[in-house]
Amino acid sequence: MAPTYAQTFAEAKTDPAAFWLNAAASIDWEQKPTAGLDESRAPIYAWYPDGVLNVCHNALDRHVAAGRGENTALIYDSAVLGIQERFSYAELLAKVEKFAGVLRDAGIGIGDRVLIYLPMIPQAHIAMLACARIGAVHSVVFGGFAPKELAARIDDATPAAIVTATGGIEPSRRIEYLPAVAEAMGMAGHKVSTVIVHHRDGFAHQRSEFAGTDATWHDWDDLAALAEPAAAVPVPATHPLYILYTSGTTGAPKGVVRDSGGYTVAMDFSMRNIYGVGPGSTMLTASDVGWVVGHSYIVYGPLIAGATTVLYEGKPVGTPDAGAFWRLIQDHKVDTFFTAPTALRAIRKADPAAELMAGYDLSSLRNFFVAGERLDPDTYAWAGEKLGVPVVDNWWQTETGWPIASNPVGLEVLEPKAGSPTVPVPGYDVRILDGLGAEVGAGEEGNIAIKLPLPPGTLATLWGNDQRFIETYLEQFPGYYATGDSGYLDADGYLFVMGRTDDVINVSGHRLSTGAMEQVLGSHPAVAECAVIGVADELKGQRPSGYVVLKSGAGISEEDLAGELVAMVRAHIGPVADFREVRIVAALPKTRSGKILRKTMRQIADGKPYAVPSTIEDPAVIDELIPFLRPAGR
Ligand code: COA
Ligand code: AMP
């Protein structure tokens, strides 16, 4: 009889090293690990210390060798161009081998970093897997970030090369990537010598314009025409596969490091046990390769599982309408769909009765997963009713790389509860702690923490900064990983996630730092001080809202200042920050030690009961601020 969720969870909790060593048998190793866990550097743990493997081999070669070479690995569906392309496992492998040869010929080898700045096109898969093939460490940067954010990542990851394209296509405009890359390279202290450009038609700027700068700008196809295919290079399981930057409370992004062996096992395990996906399945994850959801469930997970992955270049609405997802399900016989709740809210807003759904055959669909932000019960009910398949909420983070809580439908379908991502996934020993680190009872809200060790596939450290890793995640509650989210476990062991305990916000499922936005506002010459908070937004979950105090004699109108600040955030962080709201206020509420009371501001803005700490410097400031935080109509 197949094991139940409860049995599997208990096994993983009782003896994690044995459980995960057993799970490791489902993937290919050059040298099989003899030990699950290395605890010698606790609280930093490493999985499969003596294992040797290649991640790309597990995603491609292994399936070709098993006779699945003609199965479809990747379907590229571009709604913005109106094209579809299919790649079998054998075809994708051939392209990846070639591009791995290109990278190798450019002098890139084991451990070298490659920054990938690409839109949602197959070259993203090819570049990522080619890095994995030769043991290079990729760092993919989302296309909606501005050059300054790109420069910060160049300086932290110090890549040997950048792989990019002439541009990305948003419904409203074309995004020129090359000037952004050149500007970022100019700003960065670290100098990158090689840029490889995939040419897409229809963009104003071309590679040739950048000849003569410090770097050599190559054409992808020119190099590929000359390169010999490269074989997969076995690397230690602990070798970094990628760095993915994410927002923290400060402006400096954190480089989450993913290992090779633990991640491959985690992808294989999660595909089967959480998503119920294997060879023969077709999974479409509507996110972006620049986010963790894209890394795990557009690229690595479905391919490691031997399934078909659909890469969708388009939006949930507007390309051309709110029936886009339903068209994709029908055209590609998708059985497993994954997106962010915001996308569902956008579809519902445009087509409340889901009339567009009626025109499509959705009979292939088995499960509809969502993650990235809280799934509100209204949207959950709407989607479940209209789709008629289980809508499964996943709670996780860039740091963990795969779900911490989910209905593990591949293992056992549990009774769902609205507002809950269901239960902790086997491998994650989730506890709710009070501020002092003591466990609280069922139903009581507290800090969500995970007892160490975290399972395979979760962050190994922060790039080049073990100390920051320890300080950020492991010191607050010794023996636990602090998730930064608050929530509770009910009496049945179901987890409810209520929101962040820090200043990270979630706009349309995109994780952003209000601290980074405050840094930008604070750099304006007229601004004395400022606060940015995330306020509840019907469509986007949250939106950033800025409050600034002017320097005396600043002499600028509210309208002009707001326009300048909005433009500055767009230029420094990127359009994805979606920063549009600024108000000038007389003062910000602070404690006597000078800490701005952002949580109180947030509670007022969201119309919730709010707490004013006794340490407040001047309680009158709160009363003056209320009309700004809760303007009429909000
Ligand atoms: N490259 C460049 N710019 C980008 C971009 C990209 N890859 N993605 C978004 N942007 C820009 C948009 O063009 C927009 O710019 P604008 O201010 O000039 O209009 C801005 O960033 C905000 O975009 P977006 O967040 O997409 O908001 P929207 O109002 O255009 O669309 C939704 C709303 C709900 C349709 C959209 O946010 C969406 O598809 N959400 C799902 C998010 C998702 O998949 N998240 C992944 C987490 S799992
Ligand atoms: P990211 O690292 O971008 O994936 O963002 C992670 C954060 O998004 C988490 O710490 C949560 O605050 C939030 N989040 C992600 N998924 C969910 C979910 N299913 N329910 C509630 N919050 C979520």
From TrEMBL:
Its EC number is 6.2.1.17. Coiled coil: none annotated. The keyword Ligase applies. Residues 517-595 form the AMP-binding enzyme C-terminal domain. It comes from the Bacteria. Residues 63-451 form the AMP-dependent synthetase/ligase domain. The keyword Kinase does not apply. PROSITE patterns: AMP_BINDING. It holds the Pfam family AMP-binding_C. It is an enzyme of class 6 (ligase). InterPro entries: ACAS_N, AMP-bd_C, AMP-bd_C_sf, AMP-binding_CS, AMP-dep_synth/lig_dom, ANL_N_sf. One of its GO terms (molecular function) is propionate-CoA ligase activity. Belongs to the ATP-dependent AMP-binding enzyme family. PANTHER family: ACYL-COA SYNTHETASE, ACYL-COA SYNTHETASE SHORT-CHAIN FAMILY MEMBER 3, MITOCHONDRIAL. This is Propionyl-CoA synthetase.
